[in-house]
């Protein structure tokens, strides 16, 4: 067995030890990444590389301090464009089993997000789900969104492959199947529980390699008047705000409306509605129903995307140049702050923080410490760059002069929570070097 194959297995073994949920024997020994030969949505070959973030560790593969000197598994992280349908996707796929069976992001850890999902569930359940109807959430995480449904006359079912999360969902009394959603699973659910009036998938499609299988499953499970409501981070926001740190191994796809329409239409789903929300740096909520084509509302989005050149390789040349410029400016800024004797602490250890720090090569010399409010991450090290992750209470000892908001998408919440630090003169800096 090659080193490339054994190392990820070891890393995985450690993570599972922490989660204490799954025996390693359930995993395939082949944990190397593989290169995708053709577009995930339309099957066209000859994808064009538009951004290369180098070899990176999986962004959520936090490191135990005792393993700090062991080599980490790293995989190529690059974005490619299909000029045929406008789909932007990773060039290399890391096996999902490696990334998602033990997942360290819990929906309920952010109140703001929990409110957002609660609104989604309640508004759509009102519109689409009759009394006794079934609501299925793909990627139900710890059950937060489903448990927010206030109606008591509907049936709920969560589907999420992360088994450590399932334990939490059980504590919320949300029935959850610990599997990846697929056509065979959809068929089984339809057989046992009947068809679903509403299928929800938030920040899930971008994680799935085989989108055809998922769409076939949705088509199979959805009732004739039902709605498939899904949210994905919007590609245009990623470009407009140079959010290159939202590119990581778990995110296989970066959606614009045009490739989504292609995908849905190929599977007998009609794109009805698109709404935009300032979540995760810019998210679209799409509603699809059984049928073909798309609504006039969707046509407006397609026109805007055409105008913005979202399927045009030159648009991405500018994006890549801006990412490279940010790398230079961020390290220059941190070097300068260090020279001034100012203490900088990273705020939040999200996956995007891992990507930013690794791409920009921000070592512990430039950023020695990071804090994060998620207990499961505390005491571990950031993958690749190895900043120790402390609980927020450590800020009292760390006495930062500047907080670098690695979790910049939660900036309003962070500013509200740390108003006292701000009042005492601590500066708040985003990784794109905006002072807040
Ligand atoms: Zn394509």
Secondary-structure topology with pairs:
Elements: H1 3-19, E1 34-35, E2 48-56, E3 75-81, E4 88-90, E5 92-93, H2 96-100, H3 111-128, E6 134-138, H4 144-147, E7 155-159, H5 163-171, E8 176-177, H6 183-193, E9 196-202, H7 211-221, E10 222-233, H8 235-240, E11 253-254, H9 257-266, E12 269-277, E13 283-290, H10 296-308, H11 313-339, E14 344-347, H12 351-359, E15 369-371, E16 389-390, H13 395-398, E17 402-405, H14 411-417, H15 419-423, E18 427-429
Helix pairs in contact: 6-7
Bound molecules: zinc ion (ZN).
Residues 39, 41-42, 44, 82, 84-85, 87 line the site of zinc ion.
What are the salient characteristics of this protein?
436 residues, alpha/beta, Rossmann fold, 7-stranded mixed beta sheet, 5-stranded parallel beta sheet, 15 helices, 36% helix, globular, binds zinc ion
For the sheet with most strands, the description reads:
7 strands, mixed
Q: Do you know the CATH architecture of one domain?
A: 3-Layer(aba) Sandwich
CATH topology of one domain: Rossmann fold
Bound molecules: zinc ion
């Amino acid at each position: 067995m090659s080193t490339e194959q054994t190392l990820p297995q070891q890393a995985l073994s450690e993570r599972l030890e922490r989660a204490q949920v799954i025996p390693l024997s359930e995993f395939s020994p082949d944990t190397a990444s593989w290169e995708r030969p053709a577009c995930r949505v339309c099957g066209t070959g000859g994808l064009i590389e538009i951004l290369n973030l180098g070899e990176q560790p999986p962004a959520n593969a936090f490191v135990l301090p005792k393993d700090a000197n062991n080599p980490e598994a790293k995989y190529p992280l690059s974005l490619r464009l299909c000029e045929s349908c406008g789909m932007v996707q990773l060039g290399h796929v890391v096996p999902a089993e490696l990334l998602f069976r033990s997942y360290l992001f819990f929906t309920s850890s952010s109140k703001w997000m929990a409110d957002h999902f609660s609104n989604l569930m309640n508004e759509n359940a009102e519109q689409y789900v009759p009394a006794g109807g079934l609501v299925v959430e793909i990627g139900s995480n710890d059950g937060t969104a489903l448990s927010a449904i206030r109606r008591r006359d509907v049936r709920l079912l969560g589907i999420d492959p992360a088994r450590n999360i399932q334990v939490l969902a059980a504590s919320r009394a949300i029935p959850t199947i610990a599997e990846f959603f697929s056509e065979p699973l959809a068929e089984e659910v339809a057989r046992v529980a009947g068809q679903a009036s509403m299928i929800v998938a938030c920040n899930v499609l971008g994680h799935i390699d085989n989108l055809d299988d998922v769409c076939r499953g949705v088509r199979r499970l959805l009732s004739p008047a039902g709605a498939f409501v899904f949210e994905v981070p919007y590609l245009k926001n990623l470009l407009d705000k140079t959010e290159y740190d939202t590119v990581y191994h778990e995110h296989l796809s970066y959606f614009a409306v045009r490739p989504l329409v292609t995908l849905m239409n190929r599977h007998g789903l009609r794109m009805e509605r698109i709404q935009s929300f300032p979540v995760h740096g810019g998210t679209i909520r799409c509603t699809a129903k059984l049928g073909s084509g798309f609504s006039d509302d969707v046509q407006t989005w397609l026109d805007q995307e055409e105008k913005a050149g979202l399927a045009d390789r030159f648009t991405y040349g500018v994006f890549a140049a801006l990412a490279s410029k940010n790398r230079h400016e961020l390290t220059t800024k941190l070097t300068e702050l260090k020279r001034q004797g100012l203490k900088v602490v990273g705020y939040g250890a999200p996956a995007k923080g891992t990507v930013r720090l690794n791409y920009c090569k921000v070592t512990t010399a430039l950023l020695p410490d990071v804090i994060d409010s998620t207990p499961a991450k505390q005491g571990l090290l950031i993958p690749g760059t190895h900043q120790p992750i402390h609980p927020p209470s450590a800020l009292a000892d760390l006495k930062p002069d500047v907080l670098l908001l690695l979790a910049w998408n939660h900036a309003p919440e962070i500013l509200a929570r740390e108003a006292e630090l701000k009042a005492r003169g601590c500066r708040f800096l985003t990784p794109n070097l905006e002072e807040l």
